[in-house]
Amino acid sequence: MPVTRPRPARPLIAIPARFSVSTSALRYSAEIVARALVEAVWRAGGEPVTLHPHAPDGSCDPALVAERLTRFDGVLLPGGDELPPGRYGNTPTHGSTHDADAEQDGFDLAVAHHVLRTELPLLAICRGLQAVNVALGGTLQVQLAGWRRRHHNLVHQVAVQPATLLELSMGAQVVTASCFHRTHVDRVGAGLKVTARADDGTREALELPHRRAWFAGVQWHPEHTARHDPAQQALFEAFVRATGAGR
Length: 247
Hints:
Distance between the termini: 24 Å
Helix content: 25-40%
Strand content: 15-25%
Radius of gyration: 17 Å
Strand order of the largest sheet: 4-1-5-6-13-12-11-8-9
Structural class: alpha/beta
Number of strands: 13
């Protein structure tokens, strides 16, 4: 007879790993998830689980992705290097991407496509937001050197639209965001709504108003400041609460 295992006390949150060329502790290349990110999920009551982004040829079997995600209560698409322009129909330009990896790109986009077809709660951060936008037919704009207000390694204020899921989750209409991106949303994907902007007009957050399951995408890194900024931690708490609601 099949063995029935009890569900974990904490909701299981799938987080695709990021490739690292080398790690000093291991002396080898590694698959990692930022400690600040898993700690923010843990403080919110979730059980963060790292997923191996297996898509060697740059594509990914949708059935395999679906099977791998069946045991999870929610998905968090984390930040990372930029998606290459070819993934959203643009022509690559010199210096337009930092460190593209076909295996990781293929897996992230496959996860985004699958989760958007389900009722799984989804939190998308930085590159994760961009993956969702591309999965829904949107495009990105590369911020080349010399751009007037680059958002790479910048802390700035973001205005949140009232009466949105993001405002309800964070409890604020102005938040201080820690950004680390070289690209930003250009054409917004089908069904997405912009719910926060920087003072230079950069789209900083997206939602799917007509999606039944919880979804928020932010262009900044809430995990960077969540330990001491209640509004940023509240975003993780709202996400994990949503994952627990469907258990």
